[in-house]
Amino acid sequence: MCVYRKEGYMRLETVTGHAIQILKHLHYYKEDLHTKKSLAEAVGITQPLATRIIVRLKQRDCIVNISGLQGSYVLGRSAEEISFYDVVLAMQGESRVSHCMRSGGECGKKRQCKTHKFLKTLQDSMTEVMLSTSIADLV
What we know:
The chain is mainly alpha-helical. It has 6 helices and 2 strands; from the N terminus they run H-H-H-E-E-H-H-H. The chain has a two-stranded antiparallel sheet with strand order 1-2. A hairpin with a 5-residue loop joins strand 1 (63-66) and strand 2.
């Protein structure tokens, strides 16, 4: 059984790392104005990629734009209130360590095996760590 290689299972995607960097930048330089272009340059990504990231982060209220200031962006909540898990959900959706953790945690077998119990513990631990880690913790 492969925990990290299959599509849709828990792994940190590059775009999620870029989103974390954008949020850290917004937190660290909170007094400055940040456009899509300036955020892309700060993180070292293209402006179209920054735009896609910003759209997803806005959907989870991690980023808001300030109207009237040429599309400037700030954190939607304090960095202490934005968890690593919020960013993972925004960028990757709900991910699981194994197929048997999807759809309510049932793998289709009548009895859950010890492997299932271990994977559930692993999943719960990872989620708890991501929920308890804020953007402010990463700066």
